Structures are given as C-alpha cells and as structure tokens.
Amino acid sequence: MQVITLVSAVFGARCSVLVDDDGSCVVIDAGAGVMQEVLSLVRARGLRPAAVLATHGHVDHTWDAGPLSAALDVPVLLHAADAYRLADPFGTLGLLGSSGSPTHDPSGPLAQALVATGVDPARYAAPDRVEPFGGVDDVRSADSVLELGGLRIVARHAPGHTEGSTLYLVEDLAFTGDVLFAGSVGRTDLPGGDQATMQRTLREVVATLPPGTVVVPGHGPTSEISSELAHNPYLQRL
Q: By CB distance 3.0 to 4.6 Å, which of 10, 14, 92, 102 could disulfide with 85?
C-alpha cells in the first residue's frame, strides 16, 4: 500500500490517498482545494476509487467530499454520529463557522480562511451519497471493518473532538483526524466536543494502540504512538 499526502490551504488539513497494490484507492479527508489533485492522480495512474472517508464531520476535512464523491462515483463514509454535520457545515462549528447568527451565516474564521484561498463559502455542496457506519447514540461504537477495493480498513470510534470522530487503522498506520496530533490532541470546545469523552478516548482507544503504530493526523507532521506516549503531555497525564 502507498499513501499519498495532499495538504489543503485551509487550516493545513491533510488529505490522504491510500493506494492498494491492485490499483484500488480511497481518499481520507477531502478538504478544500484537493479535488483536482485527487482527480489528476486517479486519472494519471488509472486508479479505481472505492470511497471518500472522513475522520469526522468538520468542514475543513469534508469541503471537497461531496463534489469528489460525485466525480468519482463513490460514496462518502463517516461515523453516523457526525453525518448531520454535512448538511450544515458552518452552523455545526459554532463560532468557528459563523458569527453566531441564528441563520448560521458563513462569516466566522473558517469562512475567512476559505475566502483567503479563493474558495467561496457559499459554494459548499453536501454529498449526495453518504453511507454512515456505527451507532448514533453509542458512547463508543464497536469497530466497523470497511472492505474497500483491496483495502481492509478498521474504523474505530474515537469521540471527544466530535461525537463521531474516528480513527482509520490500516496496516501499521492510524489516520487520527483531529483526535491526536504530534504533541497535542484535538480541541473539545466546539459543538459536539466533550473533554471527559476525549479523555476516555485517549486512555482507552489511543493509548492502547500498538507502540509502533504510525500516527497520520489531520493536521501537521506524522508521529508514532510510542513517541506520543512518551512526549505528548495530554497522554502523559492520563
């Protein structure tokens, strides 16, 4: 398997394209501005896309998910507890997404970041094909195993940053979205975030991964679980 990394200009969100030896591929976290690069890659290499995955429903990780899934004719997969965010990407981010207006107008920091890169916030398109997995009301759902092309991906529920935050485990890699970063963890002060739930996720989900697992976060550099256990202050204090 090969992992190709693309980085969105909006908040530096990481998009990962996983390519299996048989030519099948999946896209994880299609942030703003990555669509054309993904399409060019798929065409140049003759890849067979199977799905667009989202580690969670925040729009800096899903902006291009809708149009990309339509262009590739594949579904968008994410945890059921975050699926509602796709219909209201700015309103479900609270003040990060909007100014606090009851109409959830896209006028907050996220919209400003989009405008700064030439993206019109009003042009957001929600995915037409969404396939949620996991349970909406579970404190933590059981693993979902996704067989996508030649790839076997374990989707492990890891709430706290959002209700449906998910780790995607593939071979010795963990795509952690905004749950775990190199030296830090995701914020819990946005709508749907919960500090106590995040602590449980860090203790029972993240800290129990094999030490050699490579951490591929939604923003910033990669790391390893062993390094995070030794040096990440949020894991040290568990």
A: 92
Tens digits of residue pLDDT in 127-147: 999 999 997 665 566 799 999
Mean pLDDT across the stretch 194-212?
A: 96
How do the domains of the chain map onto residue ranges? 2-236
Cα angle, residue 38 at apex, residues 32 and 42 outer, rounded to 5°: 165
Q: Give the predicted TM-score (pTM) of the model.
A: 0.94
Q: For residue range 71-107, what is the model confidence (pLDDT) as tens digits? A: 999 999 999 999 999 998 888 888 777 655 444 556 6
Q: Does domain 2-236 have CATH number 3.60.15.10?
A: yes
Task: Please choose, from the candidates 171, 170, 176, the residue with its C-alpha nearest in 3D space to the C-alpha of residue 216.
Answer: 176
